[in-house]
């Protein structure tokens, strides 16, 4: 099998390692089948579409809608590299699945309006498939139900999709929870790479990053522990299964 590539942009080594372990677990891929590209510190490795099966981009403390002069050098490097990768992804029709930061980057690349109108605090939300979502090959492979629980925590979101993008899932407070461009380039607002224990661990690492009030953190964790969010990670296994070659 040709490897997949996981793009990581988290500067914190411990968080990045936990994220990688989750992607390996949920995709079912072996270590050798998932190349790790940490774009906050180095350029994306040179590949052609014939060299890899697909690309997975996980969440990030970075946001595309932040003013340019407020972005760190690491954030600017990661963003430049991701847009360069997305140029290739679209031109060569490489399978792509981006989560959270992925919806901001793929959306911006494709002409969506990304702003802070529909940001959502850390928590569990109801996600509803659109008619197109129910017929989408990746979602069907994952066996997602028409309504499921997704885990979120984001400052920015899609405000408006371009006409050529297909909305696949929606939410009450963030209207675009998943979309597709082309036939196999996907982005989700919710996190398919997180389950309840891992989002709590992630939130502890980012308690002072503005995703929630630190004073309310333990109450938020208590509420999360009463939720089940078993469906979204199935997207990662489906992506690895559907596009492996």
TrEMBL record:
Pfam families for the chain: GATase
Glutamine amidotransferase domain ranges (all copies): 49-194
Alphabetical list of InterPro entries matching this protein: ChyE-like (IPR044992), Class_I_gatase-like (IPR029062), GATASE (IPR017926)
PROSITE patterns tied to this protein: GATASE_TYPE_1 (PS51273)
Name of this protein: Glutamine amidotransferase
Top-level taxonomic group: Bacteria
Keywords: Glutamine amidotransferase
SUPFAM superfamilies found in the cross-reference section: Class I glutamine amidotransferase-like
PANTHER family: GLUTAMINE AMIDOTRANSFERASE YLR126C-RELATED (PTHR42695:SF5)
């Amino acid at each position: 099998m040709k490897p997949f590539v996981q793009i990581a942009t988290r500067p914190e080594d411990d968080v990045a390692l936990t994220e990688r372990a989750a992607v390996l677990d949920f995709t079912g891929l072996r270590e050798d089948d998932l190349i790790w590209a940490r774009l906050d510190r180095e350029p994306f490795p040179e590949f052609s579409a014939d060299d890899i099966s697909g690309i997975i981009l996980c969440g990030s403390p970075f946001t595309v809608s932040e003013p340019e002069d407020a972005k760190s050098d690491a954030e600017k490097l990661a963003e430049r590299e991701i847009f360069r990768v997305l140029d290739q992804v679209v031109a060569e029709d490489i399978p792509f699945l981006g989560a959270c930061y992925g919806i901001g980057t793929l959306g911006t690349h494709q002409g969506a309006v990304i702003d802070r109108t529909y940001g959502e605090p850390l928590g569990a939300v109801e996600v509803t498939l659109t008619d197109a979502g129910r017929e989408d090959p990746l979602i069907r492979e994952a066996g997602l139900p028409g309504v499921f629980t997704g885990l979120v925590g984001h400052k920015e979101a899609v405000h408006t999709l371009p006409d050529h993008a297909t909305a696949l899932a929606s939410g009450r407070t963030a209207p675009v929870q998943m979309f597709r461009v082309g036939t196999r380039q996907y982005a989700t607002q919710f996190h398919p790479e997180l389950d309840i224990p891992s989002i709590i661990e992630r939130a502890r690492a980012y308690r002072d990053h503005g995703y929630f009030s630190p004073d309310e953190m333990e109450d938020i964790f208590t509420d999360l522990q009463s939720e089940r969010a078993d469906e979204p990670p199935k997207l990662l296994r489906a992506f690895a299964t559907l596009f492996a070659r």
